[in-house]
Amino acid sequence: MRVAIAGAGAVGRSIAGELLENGHEVLLIDKAPTAISVERVPQAEWLLADACEITSLDEAALQRCNVVIAATGDDKVNLVVSLLAKTEYGVPRVVARVNNPKNEWLFNESWGVDVAVSTPRLMSALVEEAVSVGDLVRLLRFSHGDANLVELTLPPESALAGTQVGDVQWPEDTSLVTIIRGTRVLAPTADDSLEAGDELLFVAAQAREEQLEDLLSVRREDAVG
């Protein structure tokens, strides 16, 4: 997979390093000469250019990229890069960094963004996830379809504890994608059972989140009654 990253700061370099370790081809783009630190990520391609300029993106051959990541520290730049990547080059997947949470509402499909990542939002979500049982925690927002990646740790008193996945009537527009049980990561099948303490990851429409939380958190006695 070929990935172009606009912004070669600490965030961009960190993402590049992980992608390279996983065997992907990475191009880092930055207009600041001081940001071009080839020795820090020597396996990556580097381009000194303004990612908001069509000529620069032509040089980067963005049309050959499977993913573009707008990872600069400027939300305006990230929006422009996202829009150009999607509309001018037809990049299948565009991921954008949101620096100011107040701007998060702009990072949607109208600006070419498939996935918006707000570092403060993600950090607070991970804190919530670590201490919350029975509460739905939103981890990531996907622009297409108004869907979110959400997590809930199944409480011991939940009526669904001990129930098989295939027997649960999940809300519409929701999909259980992963069960984390201790150190194991399970791809759920209809025959898998849900256990108290399981971390359940769903992709769910925002309008269904409350319904999903109610379903997972309902107490045994309430379900019986």
TrEMBL record:
Molecular function per GO: potassium ion transmembrane transporter activity
Recorded superkingdom: Bacteria
Keyword rRNA processing among UniProt keywords: no
Key word Chloroplast present: no
Residue stretches making up the RCK N-terminal domain: 1-117
Gene3D superfamilies according to UniProt: NAD(P)-binding Rossmann-like Domain, Regulator of K+ conductance, C-terminal domain
Signal peptide (residue range): none
One cellular component term from this protein's GO annotations in UniProt: plasma membrane
Alphabetically ordered keywords of this record: Ion transport, NAD, Potassium, Potassium transport, Transport
PANTHER family named among the record's database cross-references: POTASSIUM CHANNEL PROTEIN 2-RELATED-RELATED (PTHR43833), TRK SYSTEM POTASSIUM UPTAKE PROTEIN TRKA (PTHR43833:SF5)
Protein name: Trk system potassium uptake protein TrkA
